[in-house]
Amino acid sequence: MNSVNVMIVGVGGQGSLLASKILGSLLLGAGYDVKVSEVHGMSQRGGSVVTYVRAGERVCSPVIEPGEADFVLAFEKLEGARFAPYLKPGGVLIVNTQEIDPMPVITGKTAYPSDILSSLSGITVEAADALALAEAAGSAKAVNVVLLAKLAKYLPVPYEKWVSAIENAVAPRFTEMNLKAFKTSYDQ
Fold first, then answer.
1. Please, are residues 34 and 54 in contact by the beta-carbon 8 Å criterion?
2. Residue 125, strand partner residues
3. Separation CA 72–CA 91 (nearest Å)
4. Which domain, by its residues, includes 156?
5. At 21, which CATH number?
6. Most buried residue among 63, 89, 119, 174 by CB atoms closer than 10 A?
7. How many Å apart are CA 74 and CA 65, to the nearest integer?
8. What separation in angstroms does the CA of 112 have from each of 10, 103, 115, 116?
9. Roughly how many angstroms between the first and final C-alpha of the chain, as a whole number?
10. For residues 151 and 133, what is the distance between their CA atoms, to the nearest angstrom?
11. Rounded to an integer, what is the distance from CA 87 to the centroid of its chain?
């Protein structure tokens, strides 16, 4: 792996910041120079949260521009569609099929776009019901590690290193549940 640019996007409270911490730690432990940057947009009120994770031999800036991301890891469908233009040719959108209504939908000003993922053309979309997998493992809060497991299949980092990164990042009382969610998703 020469370099990798990953955007993690979601709605406040979904665990995207923990996902970026796990991914950054994993890549740093694998010997890469890593830069992580977080952008919070009214995250406490259900707004977008965007994290950039860049890794390579030498990384100067944490920011990923449109057309530069190898992967967009989206915790919600609308956020995935919103940030799909950041993917470079050949990039992959890994997206949770969950729908979280944004404020304009909640207030009735608009409807949640139907078939939003099918409207994306020219990119690879890997959609998963990450919420169902997380709940089956014991907690809806494990959506982040479910999606990281999907990403893990694309990166040349051994499974055991992912397990260690999760163990080091989550509170001990949540470790077993998070590892179960990761394994379940990874094995699919």
1. yes
2. 93
3. 8
4. 3-187
5. 3.40.920.10
6. 174
7. 16
8. 16, 10, 9, 9
9. 24
10. 15
11. 13
How far apart CA 69 and CA 151 sit, in angstroms, is 13
* Successive 10-residue mean pLDDT values, the chain, 188 residues: 90 81 94 86 63 93 93 93 93 92 83 83 90 93 95 95 96 95 95
Query: Distance between CA atoms of 105 and 166, rounded to whole angstroms?
Result: 35
Decide if 144 contacts 96 (C-beta within 8 A): no
What CA dihedral angle connects 100, 104, 107 and 112, to 10 degrees? -50
H or E, element range at 165: helix 159-169
Tokens of 186: 């990874």
Q: How far is CA 16 from CA 73, 103, 104, 131, 169, in A?
A: 9, 20, 22, 14, 13
Domain count, the chain: 1
pTM: predicted TM-score of the whole model, two decimal places: 0.89
**54-107 pLDDT, tens per residue?**
999 999 888 999 999 999 999 999 999 999 999 999 999 999 998 887 777 888
